[in-house]
Amino acid sequence: MSVASLPSREIHAQLEAVTRVFPAAPGAGAQPPVHALGPVDLDLRKGEFFAVVGPSGCGKSTFLEVLAGLQKPTAGTVTFEGKVVNGEVADGIGVVFQEDASFPWLTVWDNAAFGLRRNGVAAAEIRRRVDDTLAFMGLKDFARAYPSQLSGGMRQRVCIARTLVLQPRLILLDEPFGALDAQTRLLMGDEVLRLWRRTGASVLLITHALDEAAMLADRVGAMSARPGRFIEVIDTGWPRERDSTIVGEAAFGEITARLWERLRGESLKALGHAGADSMAAE
Amino acid sequence: MTRVGLIRLAVIVGAIGALELACRIGLIKHQIIIPPSEMASALWTLLASGSVNADIERTLGIIVLVIALSIVLGFAAGIAIHALPRVRAALDPFFATYYAVPVFIFYPVLIAIFGLSVMPIVLIGVATAIVAMIIATLNGLDRVPRVLTKVARVHRLSRIKTAVTLQLPAAAPYLFTGVKLSVSYGFIAVIAAEFILSPAGLGRDIADAYADFNNRRMYALILFLLIVATLVNAALHALDMRFAARRSGGRP
Ligand SMILES: Nc1ncnc2c1ncn2[C@@H]1O[C@H](COP(=O)(O)OP(=O)(O)OP(=O)(O)O)[C@@H](O)[C@H]1O
Ligand SMILES: [Mg+2]
């Protein structure tokens, strides 16, 4: 696998004026439609590490699912590798979800092998790729364990492994470490950097942690309160070879501070919105 | 054997022993209950004579048929109803109150319609057992985490593959509860139906022996049914434990 030392300018995935409105729920307790996202424009470059930060409930997961093809955009177009994505997940896209999505009835090994088996890959090739990926994710000693025997962070790693064995060219991660403590999160961040470098895939990471975004990504998109739009996209300028020790650099502090400056108002709005909504519901 | 298992065994042995003793010393009259040891020897003679083989075959055959129909049809109905939210909303009250109504009262109606044959017994058996399977299927599908459906779409699985490779195993513990209930209900309904009115079968045999004051035969047959029911349930329980142990990684 050859890996360019710098992210190219080639566009890998693109969103053009994408919005997502959840239609009003029918029936008695009529919910008004929810404008969750957009309009959003974004060019994801091939091989780059892009992070999205934003206040809670601003539409980050919706953004990821529209980009993945799990939800149809209400307006606008999503393209991946030049083809329009419309409510179906394209080949080459891997997703790790916010919730624990490991399969409790399968061992770690079988969890990881799931996608390959469905694709009819030869047994020897499955064994090679799964063993390799589990070793890479530090799960080798747990291959025979069931998810219920693992911690939350390990289960998320199982889900990452299950995605990686399929060798996706675009990896979407929705707050995969949201439930972990800060130290573990830093270490998991290093692992994501490692897998990003090794696979050469483009990575889109959603997080609510500003420092995580600032430390990991080539570019960070700051999202407004709902409906989520990008209010700023910051270039971090980190070298490709990097790890969590960059939290000691001055630039790291500057980027985090800049993100907070942009997001403070939005986060307040998100809080205020909740209050205003419940009052409007009277 | 575990400590709990030992205690359990002791309770059973103690109860049988107490009954044996009570019968032997005349505390319980022989005309009412015969000692367990006599039940066992009577059962042995009965089985050896081969005179009940036809009834055993018939009754167990009906029970297997009822259970199989209930599980397969109940599962299919559960999947269909789950896919149709409006139908489900309409049916929910029926499911919620189904077992509050003694379905059994329709047995005479079924006999009036289908005559004294296997049909009414099968129908009353399925009617009793199937709803447990439907409810368990609905419950199981409800509890399949939504994220699994998303995973299925990321892996670009067809609907059928999603159902078989993800929804079914995710719902399996709940489905198994349905299977266990269907087995119990099927068993009870078939024997009871035969007992009330049937041209043949073990239930009918017990009723006849009772009417003839033939205690040895009656208790032998009751003992036989107890043993079969216990073995079936023990087998299901063992299976359940194995699945649970796999999911929790060897910690049942
Ligand atoms: N299926 C749906 N139907 C209606 N509204 C929805 C649906 N899914 C999400 N929403 C709403 O859309 C908005 C954005 O949700 P989304 O999950 O994308 O936010 P998020 O930024 O990922 O939040 P979090 O930080 O909690 O993960 C929220 O207000 C949410 O309530
Ligand atoms: Mg989210």
Q: What is the 3D form of chain A?
A: globular
Ions, cofactors and other bound molecules: adenosine-5'-triphosphate, magnesium ion
How does the major sheet of chain A shape up? 6 strands, mixed
SSE ordering of chain A = EEEHEEEHHHEHEHEEH
CATH superfamily of chain B: MetI-like
Which quaternary structure do these chains form?
A: heterodimer
Q: Label the structural class of chain B.
A: mainly alpha
The helix-and-strand class of chain A reads alpha/beta
User: Uncertain spans of chain A, ≥5 residues at pLDDT below 50?
Assistant: 1-5, 275-282
Q: What is the radius of gyration of chain B computed over CA atoms, rounded to a whole number of angstroms?
A: 22 Å
* Sheet of most strands of chain B: none
Number of strand elements of chain A = 10
> Which class of chain B in CATH terms?
Mainly Alpha
- Give the N-to-C terminal Cα separation of chain A: 59 Å
Provide a count of the helices of chain B: 10
**Overall helicity of chain B:** over 70%
Report the average pLDDT across residues of chain B: 90
Would you mind describing this structure in some detail?
The complex is a heterodimer of chains A (282) and B (252). Chain A has 282 residues and is an alpha/beta fold. Chain A has a domain at 8-73 and 204-281: 3-Layer(aba) Sandwich (Rossmann fold), CATH 3.40.50. Chain A is built from 7 helices and 10 strands. Chain A has helices at residues 60-68, 108-118, 123-136, 152-164, 182-199, 210-216, 250-280; strands at 11-22, 34-45, 49-53, 75-80, 83-85, 93-96, 170-174, 202-207, 219-223, 230-235. Chain A has a 6-stranded mixed sheet with strand order 6-7-8-3-9-10, sandwiched between helices. A 4-stranded antiparallel sheet of chain A has the order 2-1-4-5, covered by helices on one side. In chain A, helix 2 packs across helix 3 (123-136) and helix 6 packs across helix 7. Chain A is globular, with a radius of gyration of 19 Å. Chain B is mainly α and 252 residues long. Chain B has one domain (50-247): MetI-like (MetI-like fold), CATH 1.10.3720. Helices cover 81% and strands 0% of the residues of chain B. The chains are: A alpha/beta (282), B mainly alpha (252). Chains A and B meet through strand 6 and helix 2 of A and helix 7 and helix 8 of B. The structure holds adenosine-5'-triphosphate and magnesium ion. Adenosine-5'-triphosphate (ATP) binds at residues 22, 34, 36, 54, 56-62, 98, 208, 226 of chain A.
